[in-house]
């Protein structure tokens, strides 16, 4: 037993996990890259791609010579944005290794070294692929390319560590905002020295030193962090399954993910209509279901935005007719959503009367199209008659109120009668 325990060291455990990771990746890719794929796809692609690459060295195409320098420098942002910090943390570490800070710090330090080596290889590969642009077209010296490679390598390390910390410290919508803001700031800080100072190798020396200092501070904060273990385990699981998900993305049918978090709007089940009649309650449930589904709201928003622009750009004499056409078109889509909700098993278990169905359809149709009618009148009147024309928002909503009352509901009840 003592001999078995003495065999395991920090370096031995890290090498074992690293070897297992690459064995899993090789087994996953070996199932897809059989000899037919190599003969018919991989080898011809390498042959054609290699020939094109060599030809660009000697005879750069016209579009490559006309490409500005800024475009080539922006392509290196791919390494900065997609780098991932590997910690090689596992779920069982919470029982045995997490209480031992020296072991966790040792594995994390080796994971950082592995990440640095991986990012260096990725950065070098990007610059090798872009050598015809930098050397054959713009005649960059070797010293300049090495300095740019070091600069990109440090930027990729900053991006990888910062994303790891953000994944652990934030959640939900706030994580998305913080990650987006951080990536925008990192992109600006990365591109500004390349565009403004990247004339000679010495121009990037100060940004490299500053970036190395920032990277050292982030690595130190990561080593001292005590609340990132669960996030590290989740990110490691995603890293191990990345190849499998890529190979099986079109093979396995994805089941809808169950979200247990509350929606962004209407987070509480409060009433939105005052009446307690059957048609009002049914309409309220369908309207809430519509508003709480982000894809439906997004589609409604873009349709209303495009329709409002079409109404505002039309002649004043045609605006009412075009607005009515868009109202009816949006009403058809809303009623299709109403039909889908009524066909759900939860709603079909109730014996709704025809008057209740007709009343709920009218309420859903009116309240989901009325905001669009208000936009049509507001911006259509503003474009045709100036600020005074904004008062057309009132007749716009009234026109839709009259249309909604006169639209027949016979087609809406046909589906319910067929199901009985």
From TrEMBL:
Signal peptide: none
Keywords noted in UniProt: Membrane, Transmembrane, Transmembrane helix
Presence of keyword NAD: no
A GO cellular component entry from the record: membrane
Keyword Transmembrane tagged: yes
Segments crossing the lipid bilayer: 37-57, 111-136, 142-165, 177-198, 204-221, 300-318, 324-343, 364-387, 393-413
Superkingdom, taxonomy of origin: Bacteria
Protein's name in the database: Uncharacterized protein
Species annotation: Paenibacillus lycopersici
């Amino acid at each position: 037993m003592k001999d078995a325990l003495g065999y395991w060291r920090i370096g031995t455990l890290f090498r074992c996990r690293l070897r297992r990771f690459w064995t899993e990746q090789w087994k996953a890719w070996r199932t897809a890259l059989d000899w037919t794929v190599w003969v018919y796809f991989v080898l011809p692609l390498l042959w054609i791609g290699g020939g094109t690459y060599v030809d660009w060295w000697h005879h750069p195409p016209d579009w490559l010579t006309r490409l500005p320098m800024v475009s080539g420098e922006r392509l290196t942002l791919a390494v900065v944005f997609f780098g991932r910090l590997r910690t090689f943390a596992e779920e069982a570490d919470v029982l045995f290794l997490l209480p031992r800070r020296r072991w966790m710090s040792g594995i994390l330090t080796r994971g950082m070294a592995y990440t640095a080596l991986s990012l260096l290889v990725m950065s070098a590969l990007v610059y090798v692929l872009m050598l015809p642009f930098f050397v054959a077209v713009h005649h960059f010296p070797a010293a300049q390319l090495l300095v740019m490679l070091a600069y990109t390598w440090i930027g990729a390390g900053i991006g990888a560590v910062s994303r790891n910390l953000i994944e652990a410290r934030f959640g939900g919508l706030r994580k998305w905002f913080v990650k987006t803001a951080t990536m925008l700031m990192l992109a600006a800080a990365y591109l500004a020295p390349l565009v403004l100072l990247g004339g000679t190798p010495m121009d990037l020396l100060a940004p490299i030193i500053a970036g190395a200092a920032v990277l050292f501070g982030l690595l130190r904060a990561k080593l001292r962090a005590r609340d990132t273990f669960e996030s590290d385990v989740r990110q490691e699981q995603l890293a191990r399954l990345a190849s499998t998900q890529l190979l099986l993305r079109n093979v396995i049918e994805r089941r809808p993910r169950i979200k247990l978090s509350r929606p962004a709007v209407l987070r509480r089940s409060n009433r939105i209509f005052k009446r307690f009649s059957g048609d009002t309650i049914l309409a309220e449930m369908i309207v809430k279901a519509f508003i709480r589904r982000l894809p439906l709201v997004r589609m409604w928003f873009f349709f209303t935005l495009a329709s409002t622009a079409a109404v505002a750009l039309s002649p004043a004499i045609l605006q009412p007719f075009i607005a009515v056409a868009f109202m009816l078109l949006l009403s058809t889509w809303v009623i299709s959503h109403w039909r889908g909700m009524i066909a759900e098993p939860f709603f079909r278990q109730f014996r709704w009367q025809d008057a209740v169905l007709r009343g709920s359809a009218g309420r859903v149709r009116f309240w989901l199209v009325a905001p669009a009618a208000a936009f049509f009148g507001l911006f259509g009147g503003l474009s045709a008659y100036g600020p005074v024309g904004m008062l057309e928002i009132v007749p716009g909503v009234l026109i839709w109120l009259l249309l909604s009352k006169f639209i027949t509901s016979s087609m809406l009840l046909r589906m319910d009668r067929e199901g009985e």
